[in-house]
Amino acid sequence: MTEQDYLLAWGLYAIAALGCLLVWFRMTGWIWRLLREPLRVVVAVLLLSPTIVDPARELFAPAIAVTALDLLFQVGNNAWRAVADLAIYGLIALGLWAVFAALRWPLERWWAGRRDTGSTPMADDEPTLRELMGRDDGFDGDTRLDARGDRRLRIEPRL
């Protein structure tokens, strides 16, 4: 495999992995955020983490693919190295997510509290929408009747 083939294969894999990640993001969009975000991190780690397959030439491959192919065909001994890389990358990514979530939580609470106190309460003398609609000023919300209560006739344009 030449250098160009190696880079082309990684480019195609990167595009496919990002497509799979986008599909996963769409599939998990309805889940509660504290479950959705770690699931997204785990899938991103599974799809995007590389492992070394040839230390002499410094060739890398996707860790999930190396693990699957080594276990499926029972060749080579790279499966344990790939699983170890996945575990390390997963712990690092979940740790970073936990730090991010721990920092985000008080900031969101502060922002929500600030937004609630910043709004001006409605004045006591302002009428509500129900009161406006219930007024007897000739308009009862029905556009088919005029102010006297007579039925309006619609005039349709001629074509």
Catalogue the unreliable spans: none
Quote the distance from N terminus to C terminus. 73 Å
Q: Give the percentage of residues in beta strands.
A: 5-15%
How large is the radius of gyration? 31 Å
Q: For the largest sheet, list the strands in their spatial order.
A: 1-2
H/E element order: HHEEHHH
Mean pLDDT: 84
What structural category do the secondary elements indicate? Answer: mainly alpha
> How is the biggest beta sheet arranged?
2 strands, antiparallel
Shape: elongated
Q: Helix segment count?
A: 5
Supply the key terms.
single chain; mainly alpha; 2 strands; 62% helix
Q: What's the short story on this structure?
A:
The chain has 159 residues and is mainly alpha-helical.
What do these coordinates show?
- The structure is a single chain.
- This protein is mainly alpha-helical.
- The mean pLDDT is 84.
- Strand 1 and strand 2 (59-62) form a beta hairpin.
- The N and C termini lie far apart (73 Å).
- It has a domain at 3-112.
- Helix 1 packs antiparallel against helix 2.
- It contains 5 helices and 2 strands; from the N terminus they run ααββααα.
- The protein has a two-stranded antiparallel ribbon.
